[in-house]
Design a protein that fits this description.
Elements lengths: L4 E5 L6 E5 L22 E3 L1 H10 L4 E6 L4 H17 L4 E6 L4 H6 L7 E6 L2 E7 L4 H10 L13
Parallel strand pairs: 3-5, 4-5
Antiparallel strand pairs: 1-2, 4-6, 6-7
The structure holds zinc ion.
């Protein structure tokens, strides 16, 4: 473990926190509003919050672009929730309703949903379309990012 500080966006108040990497797993709370920084569930975001997390979270950000009318998206919802339980706090999992974010779809050339996007330090590291089961989501995310503050041996 290192004592590197990671910046993390608060899910509740959007404040940017600095959290020692070694304290990631110790249920860190927001220094501004004291809400937990992680609750083991994907975070529902709008396009502005999507950009804030992608740009400022110094852990990998896994985004699910979905829509309420999309059957495969709804089918993948439970797997994505379980993936959050598995991957947080080493990753931030977010969900963005594609219907409300045409600019983001255009930016990444998203033509079908569900699409998963994986970012690290603001850079797109992976993009894949189509529903996946839990194990495949977890493996795909781990294959496209090195979780912050962990050695490869710590990755599960
Ligand atoms: Zn906060």
């Amino acid at each position: 473990m290192t004592d590197t500080n990671l910046t993390l966006v608060c899910p509740s108040c959007q404040a940017i926190n600095r959290v020692p990497a070694a304290r990631l797993a110790a249920s860190p709370r927001c220094g501004s509003c004291h809400a937990p920084l992680f609750d083991g569930h994907p975070l529902e975001v709008d396009d502005a919050r999507f950009d804030r997390h992608v740009q400022h979270d110094q852990i990998p950000v896994l985004a699910d672009l979905w829509a309420p009318w999309c059957g495969p998206c709804r089918a993948m919802t439970p797997a994505f929730i379980n993936a959050a339980a598995r991957l947080e706090p080493r990753y931030r999992l977010i969900k963005l309703n594609a219907d409300t974010a045409p600019a983001i779809l255009a930016r990444y050339g998203v033509r079908s949903i569900p699409t998963l996007l994986l970012f690290q330090n603001g850079a797109l590291k992976g993009q894949t379309a189509g529903a996946m089961p839990l194990e495949q989501i977890v493996q795909w995310a781990q294959g496209h990012a090195v979780a912050s503050g962990l050695t490869p041996a710590d990755r599960t």
